[in-house]
Amino acid sequence: MSKGLDTNVIVRYLVRDDLEQWKLADEYIKQVKASGETCFINNIVLCELVWVLKTSYKLSRIEITEVIEKILKADAFDFENREAALWSLQQMKKGKADFSDYLIGKLNEQAGCSETVTFDAKLQGTEGIRLL
Questions:
Q1: Are 78 and 38 in contact (CB under 8 A)?
Q2: Which residue among 28, 40, 71, 103 is the one 20 to 30 A from 81 at the CA level?
Q3: β-pair partners for 77
Q4: pTM for this prediction
Q5: Which residues contact 116 (CB under 8 A, 6 or more apart)?
Q6: Contact 102, 87 (CB under 8 A)
Q7: How far apart (Å, rounded) are the C-alpha atoms in residues 48 and 115?
Q8: pLDDT band, very low/low/confident/very high, at 42 (cuts 50, 70, 90)
Q9: Is it the case that residue 128 has pLDDT exceeding 90?
Protein backbone atom coordinates (compact mmCIF):
# COMPACT_ATOMS: atom_id res chain seq x y z
CA MET A 1 0.00 0.00 0.00
CA SER A 2 1.14 3.53 -0.73
CA LYS A 3 0.34 7.00 0.51
CA GLY A 4 -0.06 9.64 -2.18
CA LEU A 5 1.86 12.90 -2.11
CA ASP A 6 0.69 16.19 -3.56
CA THR A 7 3.18 18.43 -5.33
CA ASN A 8 3.34 20.96 -2.50
CA VAL A 9 4.37 18.27 0.01
CA ILE A 10 7.21 16.94 -2.14
CA VAL A 11 8.33 20.51 -2.92
CA ARG A 12 8.50 21.39 0.79
CA TYR A 13 10.35 18.13 1.48
CA LEU A 14 12.94 18.83 -1.21
CA VAL A 15 13.34 22.62 -1.04
CA ARG A 16 12.99 23.18 2.73
CA ASP A 17 12.01 26.82 2.29
CA ASP A 18 9.30 26.60 4.97
CA LEU A 19 10.83 24.91 8.02
CA GLU A 20 7.50 24.04 9.65
CA GLN A 21 6.07 22.46 6.50
CA TRP A 22 9.38 20.72 5.75
CA LYS A 23 9.32 19.10 9.22
CA LEU A 24 5.75 17.89 8.68
CA ALA A 25 6.57 16.50 5.23
CA ASP A 26 9.81 14.89 6.45
CA GLU A 27 8.10 13.27 9.45
CA TYR A 28 5.26 11.98 7.30
CA ILE A 29 7.59 10.45 4.69
CA LYS A 30 9.73 8.85 7.43
CA GLN A 31 6.62 7.42 9.14
CA VAL A 32 5.31 5.97 5.91
CA LYS A 33 8.67 4.38 5.14
CA ALA A 34 8.98 3.02 8.71
CA SER A 35 5.56 1.38 8.34
CA GLY A 36 6.82 -0.54 5.30
CA GLU A 37 4.85 1.54 2.83
CA THR A 38 5.98 4.01 0.20
CA CYS A 39 4.94 7.50 -0.78
CA PHE A 40 3.36 7.54 -4.22
CA ILE A 41 4.24 10.27 -6.71
CA ASN A 42 2.08 10.27 -9.82
CA ASN A 43 3.02 11.61 -13.27
CA ILE A 44 1.17 14.90 -12.78
CA VAL A 45 3.02 15.56 -9.54
CA LEU A 46 6.37 14.83 -11.23
CA CYS A 47 5.56 17.28 -14.02
CA GLU A 48 4.35 19.93 -11.58
CA LEU A 49 7.48 19.41 -9.48
CA VAL A 50 9.75 20.08 -12.46
CA TRP A 51 7.71 23.16 -13.38
CA VAL A 52 7.78 24.56 -9.81
CA LEU A 53 11.52 23.96 -9.44
CA LYS A 54 12.12 25.76 -12.73
CA THR A 55 9.72 28.68 -12.41
CA SER A 56 9.42 29.37 -8.69
CA TYR A 57 12.85 28.27 -7.47
CA LYS A 58 14.81 29.08 -10.64
CA LEU A 59 16.77 25.83 -10.57
CA SER A 60 18.87 25.12 -13.63
CA ARG A 61 18.09 22.24 -15.98
CA ILE A 62 21.04 20.29 -14.53
CA GLU A 63 19.87 20.91 -10.94
CA ILE A 64 16.36 19.79 -11.82
CA THR A 65 17.57 16.58 -13.44
CA GLU A 66 19.68 15.84 -10.35
CA VAL A 67 16.68 16.33 -8.04
CA ILE A 68 14.40 14.15 -10.17
CA GLU A 69 17.05 11.45 -10.46
CA LYS A 70 17.51 11.35 -6.67
CA ILE A 71 13.81 10.94 -5.93
CA LEU A 72 13.39 8.34 -8.70
CA LYS A 73 16.13 6.27 -7.03
CA ALA A 74 14.95 6.79 -3.44
CA ASP A 75 13.29 3.76 -1.87
CA ALA A 76 10.83 5.94 0.07
CA PHE A 77 8.96 6.75 -3.14
CA ASP A 78 6.94 4.81 -5.67
CA PHE A 79 5.85 6.19 -9.02
CA GLU A 80 2.99 5.85 -11.44
CA ASN A 81 5.44 4.83 -14.12
CA ARG A 82 9.06 4.83 -12.97
CA GLU A 83 10.29 3.42 -16.31
CA ALA A 84 8.69 6.25 -18.31
CA ALA A 85 9.92 8.85 -15.81
CA LEU A 86 13.49 7.54 -15.97
CA TRP A 87 13.38 7.50 -19.77
CA SER A 88 12.03 11.07 -19.80
CA LEU A 89 14.76 12.16 -17.40
CA GLN A 90 17.45 10.69 -19.66
CA GLN A 91 15.92 12.45 -22.67
CA MET A 92 15.83 15.72 -20.73
CA LYS A 93 19.54 15.36 -19.91
CA LYS A 94 20.51 15.14 -23.58
CA GLY A 95 17.70 17.06 -25.25
CA LYS A 96 16.15 20.50 -25.15
CA ALA A 97 12.48 19.80 -24.39
CA ASP A 98 10.79 19.76 -21.01
CA PHE A 99 10.43 16.66 -18.86
CA SER A 100 6.66 16.69 -19.35
CA ASP A 101 7.03 16.71 -23.15
CA TYR A 102 9.20 13.61 -23.09
CA LEU A 103 6.88 11.93 -20.60
CA ILE A 104 3.87 12.58 -22.84
CA GLY A 105 5.60 10.86 -25.74
CA LYS A 106 6.69 7.86 -23.67
CA LEU A 107 3.29 7.39 -22.05
CA ASN A 108 1.60 7.62 -25.45
CA GLU A 109 4.00 4.98 -26.78
CA GLN A 110 3.24 2.71 -23.81
CA ALA A 111 -0.48 3.22 -24.46
CA GLY A 112 0.01 1.82 -27.96
CA CYS A 113 0.37 5.01 -30.00
CA SER A 114 2.55 4.59 -33.08
CA GLU A 115 3.68 8.22 -32.75
CA THR A 116 3.01 11.46 -30.93
CA VAL A 117 2.67 14.57 -33.06
CA THR A 118 3.68 18.00 -31.84
CA PHE A 119 4.53 21.52 -32.92
CA ASP A 120 7.36 21.65 -30.34
CA ALA A 121 10.60 21.86 -32.35
CA LYS A 122 12.59 21.02 -29.21
CA LEU A 123 11.37 17.43 -29.58
CA GLN A 124 12.77 17.02 -33.09
CA GLY A 125 14.73 13.77 -33.36
CA THR A 126 13.07 12.16 -30.33
CA GLU A 127 12.05 8.58 -30.97
CA GLY A 128 8.29 8.24 -31.43
CA ILE A 129 7.76 11.98 -31.93
CA ARG A 130 6.81 13.59 -35.23
CA LEU A 131 6.76 17.33 -35.83
CA LEU A 132 3.80 18.69 -37.76
A1: yes
A2: 28
A3: 39
A4: 0.93
A5: 104, 105, 108, 109, 128, 129, 130
A6: yes
A7: 24
A8: very high
A9: yes
